[in-house]
C-alpha cells in the first residue's frame, strides 16, 4: 500500500488548513493525474464542490471532516490513512443531468450529485407542468418550487422540503414539491432512476423560476429536463463503521 499516491483538496477554513499541514508530514501531496485516491479535508459543502471538479476523473474520493456537519465525511485522523483507504467501503453515487432552456432559448447543461431544483425568484408563486417519461402527470402545479433528488441527496434539501429519505441502493429518485399550493395535498412522487422528468414553466415572464443543479444556477428557466446520467458516477469511500447507508437509515428514526 505504501506506493499508492494521494492528492488532497483542502478547504480554506483554519481547521482544514492545520489538518493538511499535519497529514502531509505522513503522506506527501501527489499530483491529481498520478493520484490513486483523492482525500478531501473540509465539510460537506466543500466536498460537494470537489466532487463536481473531479467528476470526469472517476477516482475514489475519501472525505475527512474538518467542517461542521460532516454527514458525507469520515472522522479526521492523520494516522493510518492508507490502511483506512484500503479497507474503506465503496459507495457508487449516480449523478443527475439538468438541461435548461431559458427565456432566450439558450440551452444550459449541468450535473447534480444531490438534486436539481426549481424555485421562484419573485414574490409570486411558480406555475409548472410536470411530465414523466413523456406523460403529463400534473397540468399545473402552483408552488414555490420543485426538486428531483438522488438517494445521496435525499437527506439534504429534499428532506427539508418534507421529501422522503431514500436508501442508497433503492434505484429511486424523489420528486418533491416545495410549498405546494395547488394541488395542496400533492406530496411528491417516487420515480425509477430510469425516468426522465420535464418541468415546463407555464408563466416564465410573469412568474420566473430559477433552475439549480447543486450550486449551478440558471435564471429565467422555461423548461428543465432531468435524468440520471449513465456515464457520470462517483465513488465515495467510507470507513466500514461509518457506512453511508447506515447513516441514511438512522436519519429515518430521528425524533
Description:
With 255 residues, the chain is α+β, with helices and mostly antiparallel strands. The protein folds into two domains: 6-87, Probable inorganic polyphosphate/atp-NAD kinase, domain 1 (Rossmann fold); 96-229, Sandwich (Tumour Suppressor Smad4). The protein has five helices and 15 strands. A hairpin with a 2-residue loop joins β13 and β14 (216-218). The model has no long low-confidence stretch (mean pLDDT 94).
Proportion of strand residues: 35-45%
Task: State the CATH architecture of the largest domain.
Answer: Sandwich
Report how far apart the termini are.
42 Å
CATH superfamily of the largest domain: Probable inorganic polyphosphate/atp-NAD kinase, domain 2
Report the sheet with the most strands, covering strand number, pairing sense and barrel closure: 9 strands, mixed
CATH class of the largest domain: Mainly Beta
Q: Count of DSSP helices?
A: 5
- Average pLDDT level: 94
**Shape summary:** elongated
Task: Count the E strands.
Answer: 15
Question: Under CATH, the topology of the largest domain is which?
Answer: Tumour Suppressor Smad4
Q: What ranges have pLDDT less than 50 throughout 5 or more consecutive residues?
A: none
Helices and strands, in order, run as EHEHEHEEEEEEHEEEEEEH
What structural class is derived from the secondary structure elements? alpha+beta
Rg calc:
20 Å
Helix content: 10-25%
Domain tally: 2
Amino acid at each position: 500500500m505504501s506506493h499508492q499516491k494521494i492528492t488532497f483538496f483542502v478547504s480554506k477554513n483554519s481547521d482544514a488548513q492545520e489538518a493538511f499541514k499535519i497529514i502531509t508530514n505522513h503522506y506527501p501531496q501527489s499530483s491529481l493525474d498520478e493520484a490513486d485516491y483523492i482525500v478531501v479535508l473540509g465539510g460537506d459543502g466543500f466536498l460537494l464542490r470537489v466532487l463536481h471538479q473531479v467528476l470526469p476523473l472517476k477516482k475514489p474520493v475519501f472525505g475527512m471532516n474538518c467542517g461542521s456537519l460532516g454527514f458525507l465525511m469520515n472522522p479526521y485522523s492523520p494516522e493510518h490513512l492508507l490502511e483506512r483507504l484500503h479497507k474503506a467501503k465503496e459507495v457508487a453515487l449516480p449523478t443527475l443531468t439538468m438541461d435548461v432552456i431559458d427565456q432566450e432559448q439558450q440551452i444550459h447543461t449541468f450535473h447534480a450529485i444531490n438534486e436539481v431544483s426549481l424555485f421562484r425568484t419573485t414574490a409570486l408563486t411558480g406555475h409548472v407542468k410536470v411530465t414523466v417519461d413523456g406523460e403529463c402527470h400534473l397540468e399545473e402545479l402552483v408552488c414555490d418550487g420543485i426538486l428531483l433528488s438522488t438517494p445521496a441527496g435525499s437527506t439534504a434539501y429534499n428532506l427539508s422540503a418534507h421529501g422522503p429519505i431514500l436508501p442508497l441502493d433503492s434505484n429511486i429518485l424523489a420528486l418533491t414539491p416545495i410549498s405546494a399550493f395547488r394541488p395542496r395535498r400533492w406530496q411528491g412522487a417516487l420515480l425509477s432512476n430510469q425516468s426522465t422528468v420535464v418541468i415546463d414553466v407555464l408563466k416564465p415572464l410573469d412568474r420566473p423560476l430559477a433552475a439549480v443543479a447543486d450550486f449551478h444556477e440558471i435564471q429565467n428557466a422555461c423548461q428543465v429536463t432531468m435524468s440520471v446520467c449513465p456515464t457520470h458516477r462517483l465513488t465515495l469511500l467510507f470507513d466500514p463503521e461509518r457506512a453511508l447507508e447506515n447513516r441514511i437509515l438512522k436519519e429515518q428514526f430521528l425524533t
